[in-house]
Amino acid sequence: LNNIRYGWVNPLYRTMVGNFWLPQKVSLVEDKISVKTLTEDEDKAVRDTLSFLIFLDSFQVNNLPNIADYVTNPAVKNLLTIQAFQEVIHSETYQYIMEALYPSEDRDAIYNRWRNNEALKQRNKFVASIAEDFAENKTTKNLHKILVANLVLEGVYFYQGFNLFDQLAHRGKIVGTAKEIDYIRRDELTHVGLFTNMIKEVKPSVEIVHSIFDEGVKQEIAHCKTTY
């Protein structure tokens, strides 16, 4: 692992394995009380955002191994394996948050809210379709597209979702949940670094990068204009 082609791999590896944490270390007892202080609009936004983030993390658990299978450098494959493990921890974290904030009869409906919200559904379909294309036809072009789509997912979609919890915590609401999001965001920063470096190595066309980022940003703008 110390004698590898890419100089960025080993420092990133050390950072990623050093980020280990468990969601149960953060108490959500106070959140069970403060969630009841959310306005109707805030509650809808939280439910929608959790549904969206949960889908994306679950998606990544299945998506990353497909990319790793294509990668030939063992050290880079290790980073993708670590990321997949971290996405499992994130999924566990969202389950922990859901169990703290909502009764069991509400949870299934929240998991599926993205299906009935056009702004959320379009983003999920966008990244899923690119991943499906790569899984079915592992060409270099499709690899380039899935790497860029992953950067949009990790660096745009996730971070916009996290912003809601930052705003609520600033107002003293579901502060423990925001702390969990901080831990997730720390992992996602390394995931952004991983895909940024992979993209720099394989050098996709400017057209691919611009087209996927343009679509991702348009989708975010559309969702930000959602009226709650």
Structure characteristics:
228 residues, mainly alpha, globular
Order of helices and strands: HHHHHHHHH
Net shape: globular
Overall radius of gyration: 18 Å
The level of helicity is over 70%
**Strand tally:** 0
How many helical stretches?
A: 9
Largest sheet: none
What is the fold's blueprint, element by element?
Blueprint: H1 9-17, H2 29-34, H3 40-70, H4 74-101, H5 104-111, H6 118-136, H7 140-170, H8 175-202, H9 206-224
Helix pairs in contact: 1-4, 1-8, 3-4, 3-6, 3-7, 4-8, 6-7, 6-9, 7-8, 7-9
Protein architecture, described:
With 228 residues, the chain is mainly α. Helix content is 79%, strand content 0%. It contains nine helices and no strands.
State the gist of this model.
It contains nine helices and no strands.
